[in-house]
Amino acid sequence: MAQKTIPSGARRLAKTDYRNLMRRRIRRILLICSSYDAYTLEEDGRLEVQLNHEYMELNLSNPPSFTRVSSSTEALELLQGENDFDLVISMFNVGDLDVFHFSKQLKALHPEIPFVLLTNFSKDIYRRIEGEDRSAIDYIFSWHGNADLILAIVKLIEDRMNADDDILGVGVQSILLVEDSIRYYSTYLPAIYKLVLQQSAEFLKEALNEQQQMLRKRGRPKILLATNYEEAVMLYERYKRNLLGVISDVGFVLHKNDPADSEKLDAGIDLCRLIKSDDPHMPFLLQSSQESMRKTAEELGVGFVVKYSKTLLIELSDYISEEFAFGDFVFRDPGSGEVIGRARDLRDMQRLVQEIPEEVLLYYTSRNRLSKWMYSRGLFRLAGMFKSVSESHFPTVDGLREFIAKAITEYRIVQGHGVVAHFDAQTYNRYIWFARIGEGSLGGKARGLAFINNMLQRYDLYDKYEGVKVMLPRTVVVATDYFDQFVRDNGLMYVINADVGDEEILSEFVSSRLPETLVNDLRAYIRTVSGPLAIRSSSKLEDSHYQPFAGIYSTYMIPKTDNEDQMLRLLGKAVKSVYASVYFAASRAYIQASSNLLSEEKMAVVIQDVCGTEDSGYFFPTISGVARSLNFYPIGDEQPQDGIVNLAFGLGKLVVEGGLTLRFSPRYPRNVLQLSTTELTLRDTQREMYALNLRPEEFKTSLDDAVNLQRFEINKAKHFRNMRYVASTWDMQNQRISDSNFEEGRKIVTFSQILKYDTMPLAGILSDMLALGERELRCPVEIEFAVNMDVPYGEDKVFDMLQIRPIVDSPSNRSLDWDQVDTSGALIYAESALGLGAIEGVTDVVYIRPDRFDTAHTQQMADEVNRLNTELRDQKRSYVLVGPGRWGSSDPWLGVPVKWPHISEAKVIVECGLDNFRVEPSQGTHFFQNLTSFGVGYLTINPFQGDGRFDIAQLDTQPALYESAYVRHVRFPEPLYIFVDGRKNRAIIRPADV
């Protein structure tokens, strides 16, 4: 098989915006008829009901409204006064001014308004119509008492109005009906539209929610009506590239408004030969009142139906379903006609193209039947891809099979992006990317994830970057109504006000039963799972503006097991453990500190695939990270708006809990302070990494949500495959660092292959994500992400967006003229500061004594600060907190390892470096996010280097309310003057009398 280059358009799925389809619509209809005719038309209101129902299904808020007048004279008066009618329908008897003269006056006034004549079937009336000038009448229809005809008329006019934009512009398919008999096309049209809408309803079952169904319905095939040969040829030539098939009478007139007696008896045969010579595979159905024409149709190789047949509409429906690729796709043996396979949906098609014999696949692909089937179902992206390729583009038929199957897979993935699907245990599959179980709230975190999912789809980011898929991990959200039901059914309401320890709460929750309907849905879900899962909290308050609750509740990870019941138990235990975390002591303290009520907090649960791959019994991504669109600590050429990123090798627990990671600006990825000297690289790069232990027995009921996470020292993780993407090597003999991981020596996580040599466009992706996030949220944002580079050769790497949340940045922040500020008497002065202006009413300072600081006793310091924080909270006092290193670090060797609730009353937090102890500030941590969201001043100083001021002597002269070997608490008689200038990154704290 000769191989050609696959057209570039077939490689990438083009985006289809269904909202742009059917933009021109019939809004107002002027109906001219007598009271009797009006009653006949309306019957018992069915006309209005059907039209309203159709428009509701299309998600349109304004179905057509009818204005009725009883004569053409009244109609003209109305039309002269305003011009907002979209369609005029008139019965035959309309007063002194007959319909023919009225139609000409209408067109003179409003040539753009379609005019339709509706008449009862009568030979006398037809003879009168034949003898009149009908040039100003767009369509004539015969009224049979069927309200479906009005619907068909409206749809026919709308299809004509939108044909060029939708058919030529987007690829919507069409059906050409050629018939000059008013009586017959008045019968065919409602039947064809009914069939089209019924078939649309079938393929809409593939849509993932109601909104997607409504939008997809706009992509249904259009009906084009020609009443003469000239019009039929014109419509065919214009729309033939998007034509499903033709239904034609055998005899009809050649030109519009020709008399019936000039009908050419074989015009349909001529039309058939013309079209078949141009496209031998175009489906063509001939219809005639003469049975003898069946033989001619067989000779031409086309379908045939007898007009007077009692089964006319059934035969018409069957032909359209199969030949116009409208129903199930039926693969038949080209020789025998035997059915080889039947595809009801994309999933069936994906399977069958891998199984059917070569000659069957080539028969249907060479005739573009696959693309036609997809076009008829509104799958324009796929249809366009398949139409642009043939077997000649592939060296083997297996290559063609792989292309089709892969394209369908990609489409099903992309289709799930941007959509929150309703979970259905019967239809859920691994291509549904975001689904909700239950009808309650998704919670704050899940709303953020749904927003990301939508944003990625709207900006078409899935395959924007060469060699990288940008996506959300496959996600299922258990809504808050199941949390309420779980607490209620198991009688757990008592814990809201009870003084119960965390261990007892967790035990009570884990030993309780989840609702049976939820268990059944989770069982259906895990059958589609192929790897480990992260079970994350998504409370109603999480990630909302100004109170993000970041990291307050638990996140558990569980491995994939082959035993379905065991996997279900692990998942159920994790979900119940997340539920329990609502009532843990730290959660209660945070809710109290944020002035919320525990009784109002509700928990949804996010269940996601974990990004990464398995290696030696452990699972982890290549990279985890946090990126912020505002960098409050810019260095060198960096600007605050350039953003900041913290990267880590392995699971992201290290990043969000303040471990030692790599910090860089996405605009300057090659300028990394930590890598600027050999000494800094050896001292200040990542020392450890986290991985998920895949042994099921490691996941135990525990308050520690990292119970089954394994911590590795970096040099003991050098056997992992992913190290080759992130590590450099310390060549001790030559005292240099090599960017290669393949040399022998100590491994250092530098990410140089990525940041220096662009093995993947990480910095560009992060810059784009931050810019889009800011644009969409209209405020600075923080995102969490993970990257998997450990993929089979030739496959795309994966960039997973894990979370997005707002960063507080009040536009009312004012700045000081620092040239006029005297800092000589300041207790603390900083030139690296984040904050929200003046902070008032603070008299207390709690500080770690610099002369007594010892990294071996940081946990003791944390306990003392916690006790003081509790006392001050009870007294409703806030304070300034000062200490060496990182506040809130999970690594006690980097600072005092407090949790946020332990320092919740601090209004200013100062990280003060010592001569022998200097670390980077805590950006990129959950602790940092909570700190800034509460409007807490955040200062970093290194006085020993001339970076800021810390007057410890002035503090030491104040009487102590509390003093120990490591911690001191003092209170000033008057509130301190505190101003944190977030715009200029400066801050000052001084006594009121200075």
UniProtKB/TrEMBL annotation:
Organism, scientific name: Alistipes indistinctus YIT 12060
Highest taxon above the source species: Bacteria
GO molecular function: ATP binding; kinase activity
The organism's taxonomic lineage, starting at the top: Bacteria, Pseudomonadati, Bacteroidota, Bacteroidia, Bacteroidales
Gene3D superfamilies to which the protein is assigned, alphabetical: 3.40.50.2300, ATP-grasp fold, A domain
Listed name of the protein: Pyruvate phosphate dikinase AMP/ATP-binding domain-containing protein
Alphabetized InterPro entries for the sequence: ATP_grasp_subdomain_1, CheY-like_superfamily, PPDK_AMP/ATP-bd
Pfam families for the chain: PPDK_N
Residue stretches spanning the membrane: none
Domain Pyruvate phosphate dikinase AMP/ATP-binding: 441-810
Regions annotated as coiled coil: none
